[in-house]
UniProtKB/TrEMBL annotation:
It comes from Thetidibacter halocola. Pfam families: Ribul_P_3_epim. The keyword Metal-binding applies. Binds 1 divalent metal cation per subunit. Keywords: Carbohydrate metabolism, Cobalt, Isomerase, Manganese, Metal-binding, Zinc. This is Ribulose-phosphate 3-epimerase. The lineage of its organism: Bacteria, Pseudomonadati, Pseudomonadota, Alphaproteobacteria, Rhodobacterales. Belongs to the ribulose-phosphate 3-epimerase family. The gene is rpe. Its cofactor is Zn(2+); Fe(2+); Mn(2+); a divalent metal cation. The active site is at D39, D176. Catalyzes the reversible epimerization of D-ribulose 5-phosphate to D-xylulose 5-phosphate. GO terms for molecular function: D-ribulose-phosphate 3-epimerase activity; metal ion binding. Pathway: Carbohydrate degradation. Its EC number is 5.1.3.1. It is an enzyme of class 5 (isomerase).
Length: 231
């Protein structure tokens, strides 16, 4: 079966109210989120620290769509089973997180999850050439990972190269960092289908006033779909 490449918006709860994750997750899903993106940071692979498996397991109870867990940690392998147990649907590891990404992707699938591989801005598309049979998603970072709200780095050339390499394989191309209604069209036209957005989804809203989340999600989706249609 061919992969459904329609545009998916994956709000990052890194921009949510950290005291109210359950309601925030329910609010973004009610407002049209396709996936829920969970950023796990270890203060070592990236200079910021977020949450571990017990927190992710608690989020799971509120996620009705797809829980997309982005690991910015090193090492990865000792924690794969914990994130499977926490209920991740997709587990993405960074290619730069260790010498054995091939083994890591095998282990993620072996634990029953879909496997993603993320590329830092400095890592070329070609680095996944020998991993495509093991990956369900390639995440192209359009910021240096670690923080929300950073300026978008133009990686459209890398996205185009990946789209060509992937061909008919059932692999999503996800973009993470600085996605908003201005930058989404660039990556959508280049071949991306999953758009992570933190600050551009949560700005202007709250759990008590969630309508702006919906407006923000629709604005990103409309801009991306328009560019896709014109490409
Ligand atoms: C950055 C994270 C992103 C982040 C995106 O390291 O991986 O998912 O939350 O935030 P924005 O959309 O604000 O750039
Ligand atoms: Zn992320």
């Amino acid at each position: 079966m061919t992969l459904d490449r329609s545009i998916r918006i994956a709000p990052s709860i890194l921009s949510a109210d950290f005291a109210d994750f359950g309601r925030e997750i329910r609010a973004i899903e009610a407002q049209g989120a396709d996936w829920v993106h969970v950023d796990v940071m270890d203060g070592h692979f990236v200079p910021n620290l977020t949450f571990g498996p017990p927190a992710v397991k608690a989020f799971r109870k509120h996620v009705r769509t797809v829980m997309d867990v982005h690991l910015m940690i090193a090492p990865v392998d000792p924690y794969i089973d914990a994130y499977a147990e926490a209920g991740a649907d997709i587990l993405t590891a960074h290619l730069e997180a260790g010498p054995h990404i091939h083994r890591t992707l095998q282990a993620i699938r072996g634990a029953g999850m879909k496997a993603g591989v993320a590329l830092n801005p400095g890592t070329p598309a070609e680095s996944v050439a020998h991993l495509l049979e093991l990956a369900d998603l390639v995440c192209v970072m359009t910021v240096n990972p670690g923080f929300g709200g950073q300026k978008f780095l133009d990686m459209t050339g890398k996205v185009r190269a990946l789209r060509r390499m992937i061909g008919d394989r059932p692999i999503h191309i996800e973009i993470d960092g600085g996605v908003d209604p201005v930058t989404a069209p660039l990556v959508a036209a280049a071949g991306a289908d999953v758009l992570v957005a933190g600050s551009a989804v949560f700005r202007g809203g709250s759990v008590d006033n969630p309508a702006p989340y919906g407006d923000n999600i629709r604005a990103i989706r409309t801009a991306a779909e328009g560019a896709r249609a014109a490409a």
